[in-house]
From TrEMBL:
GO BP terms, alphabetized: cell adhesion; Rho protein signal transduction
Biased composition (Polar residues): 522-533
Localization: Cytoplasm
Record-given protein name: Alpha-catulin
Pfam families, alphabetized: Vinculin
Recorded GO MF terms: actin filament binding
Transmembrane residue ranges: none
Cellular component terms (Gene Ontology): cytoplasm
SUPFAM superfamilies: alpha-catenin/vinculin-like
InterPro entries attached to this UniProt entry: Alpha-catenin/vinculin-like_sf, CTNNAL1, Vinculin/catenin
């Protein structure tokens, strides 16, 4: 939405001057192309706004690895960024401490490595990457493959021995593999910054724009054409830098900004050259000259935005940007609660490790349950819908333990846990109705046993959330307990889903229903787009107050539309801001 708005704002003046030029010189082909390009840019931006407002964003079918035509809007691309695939790879390596290195894990690790090598090809294939950097990247990719093969070899030998715990040898292999991944990541960052620094060091934009104006004023279309070739080459180099910046950007906003810069530069270049060609054909036209000035200023503004982006990405890569500190709600001055200021307090190493371990265990259960729900073939299966919704919520809580995802405060975590417990009760009712249709058998008894545990865990989780919190220790204990109870409930849900699938398959029971609103699925390993449940539930109870607080609008949207799963999972939860006690 922000990218579309920026395009419309900048295109307004372009449309005015290009239309004036076209009216003054109706026989000029370049003037017509200039105006048509601006119209196309604005039309696609408006289409984007309409699609976002009506559909809530781009669907998976609309994903494109290229710019959205001439709109200047970069769409979500099907190719993941290098930072993302490297973080996914690191996360898989860390999971081997729990899952060990079985055949399925080996396949996932090799697939992740293939994605890393594929994304690094954008760096090695770039014509503007130095020979030294290209050779260094290729060498580091080989080193990463060697370390991964060693990890798989050690893990496979332990798996064959049926050793349940990870040995020191496996731990060393994991650390070496992750270190090789980080070294490669650093090299990709350095390569991008080398290209960017060389680009801005020359300051070629100023000379090219000045030359276009001089030759246009002199009425030399041939000279403008010659200079246009150099300008296009320069534009391609700028786009290449944007492409690499997108790869190394670690945050969603920076990735979107890089895509937007690349697409705007791609679109503005031919429009600017058309304006210069028109001015060269009519050097005495003040309207044509003013039109060229407008496009030149738009280009200069975009270059300034790119330079800011380079600095921001570089700061993030070097860890200079101010890190987000989690803050507990209620905040001072809101809800009439208290006036004390927030005091961020760091968790000690033991507390961080405990929270991270719980989160990792919960993610493992989430992955196992996703695998179970993927076995169901019915598109309108109530049990699967509820289970996947709970899986998505649990995953967002796992991201919180890593300092990622939509949950930014401890109160957000507690609110999410409240919705999670409510969804668990709904799943219990759904499966209860299903169990009544299962014939008496051992499978039914097993299903009932697992099912009866769900409301117990739901009540335990809700009881934990009602506990008052004052000070750092109490808040940490509440977070710890909430994640532990969520993990227990998720484990029970996974067993219920597995047993339900066995019963449905063995006794040929149809679990589909028309009473529940529809969900849209995008494949077994992709995001859940939940458009039905959880958006109107009451908020959670906070602290020691008896006041019922509804979830913030941003959180309500997350529950209604589904909490999207992020793959940037490598940032540990280092701080939780607490109220002064």
């Amino acid at each position: 939405m922000g990218a579309a708005r920026a395009v419309l704002e900048k295109a307004t003046m372009m449309l005015l001057t290009s239309s004036k030029t076209c009216l003054r010189h109706p026989d000029c082909h370049s003037a017509k192309q200039n105006r048509a390009g601006v119209f196309a840019q604005m039309r696609r931006a408006l289409d984007m706004v309409h699609q976002i407002v009506t559909n809530g964003g781009m669907s998976s079918d609309s994903l494109s690895p290229t710019v959205n035509g001439d709109s200047g809007i970069g769409l979500a691309t099907s190719q993941p960024t290098a930072s993302r695939v490297l973080k996914d790879f690191d996360d898989l390596c860390e999971l081997t401490r729990i899952t060990m290195v079985g055949p399925s894990t080996q396949e996932k690790l090799n697939s992740a490595l293939d994605l890393i090598i594929e994304s690094s090809q954008d760096f090695t294939d770039s014509a503007y990457t130095s020979h030294e950097n290209r050779e260094r990247i290729l060498d580091l990719c080989d080193q990463l493959r060697i370390q991964l093969n060693n990890l798989i070899k050690i893990g496979a030998s332990l798996d064959q021995k049926e050793n349940a715990s990870s040995s020191q040898e496996l731990e060393t292999a994991i650390l070496k593999t992750i270190e090789a991944s980080k070294v490669l990541h650093k090299q990709l960052q350095d390569t991008t910054m080398d290209q960017a620094s060389e680009l801005f060091k020359v300051n070629e934009d100023h000379d090219l724009l000045k030359g276009l104006k001089i030759h246009g004023l002199a009425g030399s279309p041939d000279k403008v054409d010659e200079l246009s070739v150099k300008f296009r080459e320069h534009s391609e180099q700028l786009e290449e830098v944007c492409k690499l910046l997108r790869h190394i950007a670690n945050t969603g906003p920076l990735i979107i900004t890089a895509e937007h810069n690349e697409s705007v530069i791609h679109v503005t270049c031919p429009l600017l050259l058309n304006a210069a060609q028109t001015f060269a054909q009519y050097p005495g036209s003040r309207i044509a000259e003013g039109n060229l000035d407008v496009f030149a200023k738009a280009w200069e503004g975009q270059i300034n935005e790119l330079s800011i982006l380079v600095k921001e990405v570089n700061d993030v890569c070097q860890g200079k940007m101010e890190k987000h500190v989690y803050q507990s709600l209620p905040r001072p001055g809101k809800h009439g609660t208290m006036v004390k200021s927030l005091r961020p307090v760091k968790l000690d190493a033991e507390e961080q490790a405990k929270i991270a371990k719980l989160g990792l265990e919960m993610k493992l259960i989430t992955s196992e349950m996703d695998a179970e729900t993927d076995k169901w073939e019915e598109a309108d299966n109530d049990i699967v819908k509820r289970a996947k919704n709970m899986s998505s919520m649990a995953f967002s809580m796992y991201l919180f333990t890593r300092g990622e995802g939509p949950l930014k405060t401890t109160q957000d975590l507690f609110t999410q846990a409240k919705y999670f417990a409510d969804e668990g009760n709904k799943l219990y009712k759904t499966v209860k109705e299903f169990a009544e249709r299962v014939p008496a058998s051992g499978h039914k008894e097993e299903l009932v046993v697992h099912l009866d545990r769900i409301p117990v865990f739901c009540q335990q989780l809700l009881k934990t959330l009602r506990a008052p919190t004052f000070g750092k220790a109490a808040t940490f204990n509440k977070v710890d307990s909430a994640i532990q109870e969520t993990k227990n409930l998720m484990n029970a849900v996974a067993k219920v889903v597995t047993t339900s699938f066995i019963c449905a398959t063995k006794y040929n029971i149809d679990c589909r229903s028309t009473s529940v609103q529809s969900y849209k699925w995008r494949g077994s390993s992709q995001r859940l787009d939940n458009q039905a449940n959880g958006g109107t539930d009451a908020g959670s109870e906070s602290g020691g107050s008896s006041t019922t607080t509804t979830a913030p609008p941003s959180l309500q949207n997350s529950y209604i539309e589904g909490l999207y799963r992020s793959s940037s999972l490598n940032k540990p939860l280092s701080t939780i801001g607490l109220l002064d006690s």
